[in-house]
Amino acid sequence: MPQGEFLRQVTVMPGAPSQAEIDEKPWKYLGYNAFSSYLVSDPDNLVVRRFSKLFSRGLLYIQDHLSELEAKLDALDKKYTDIVPEEDEVNNGTARDDMMDRKALVYEISKVQLKYYKMILMYSELGSWKCPKKRSIQNVHTWLFTNFPGVIMDDEADFIRHEDDLVSIIRAEKSPTRTLFEDWVLFRVKAIRRFFEKTENDSICEADKQTRKSVSEERLDVFSSLSILTVGLALFIAPLWILQTLNVFRWKLLVITIFVILFMTILTFSTIGRPFEVLATTAGYSAVMVVFLQFGTAQVGQ
């Protein structure tokens, strides 16, 4: 047995621990197993630090190291260029037969450059990640310090307090309307939340199941789709019937203007489409309204 390694007898107690035992030693019976299961149970809650300050410092150090190596290479180039006697001249136009010290320095620079560029690309990618929502940060904070204090050591749980340095690894794109519905209706009105609740999977510890209620993203997606479909049909059908009852052309234009603005507003806040996509869809809606307006005007003229 290698020096410094010791074997000790471990007594394994059969059966699940009692609630009193869990409350007394949560770090033993729950620990990182329970915390990691909680984080992956809801993608929005999987938040970590990006360590921006440390990254920038490391990048600056590598940059300075490259500057030093660059200066050494320039000095070697000048040294081998300034040699005067022809018998001692160095061929500076070859890489295969280059001087060993310069060749070794170039290889060293290449290795440092590779690390430097990798860090830049990684941070560039990391910069495109979304910042977590306030609710996600609050959920993790509540789990660590209110629901299960002592499960994770305070120094290790302190990462959640660095709110400006947190990133969400998996954050689904949601429309402003859906975000508003979840934050101000779904998680505040228990009667509505019960309709969207789902059964917790087996990876969640029993203690965690008693303190949390997760909602089904599938049910929310279906509800969102049905809501958009219902509103869309109303925005198409309602103005047609209203226009059919009007005879004054200006009133018809006013109705079309109101519904076009309403359509664009709802489309902007209920979808995650880009501005030009919203504008193109609104233009198509306007075209349908104008065609119906012309059709109704022609019938009145006859």
Brief account:
By secondary structure, the protein is mostly helical. It has 13 helices and two strands.
Order of adjacent strands in the largest pleated sheet:
1-2
Tally the helices: what do you get? 13
Instruction: Give the strand content.
Output: under 5%
Sheet bearing the most strands, described?
2 strands, antiparallel
Q: Kindly report the average pLDDT value.
A: 84
The total beta strand count reads 2
In which range does the helix fraction lie? Answer: 55-70%
- Broad shape: flat
Query: What is the rounded distance between the termini?
Result: 104 Å
Supply Rg.
Answer: 33 Å
Question: Which stretches of 5+ consecutive residues score pLDDT under 50?
Answer: 1-11
The SSE string, one letter per element, is HHHEHHHHEHHHHHH
Supply the helix-strand structural class: mainly alpha
Question: Could you explain how this protein is built, in words?
Answer:
- This protein is mainly α and 302 residues long.
- Helices cover 65% and strands 2% of the residues.
- The chain has a two-stranded antiparallel ribbon.
- Helix 11 packs parallel to helix 13.
- The longest helix is centred in the first third of the chain and has 30 residues, at 52-81.
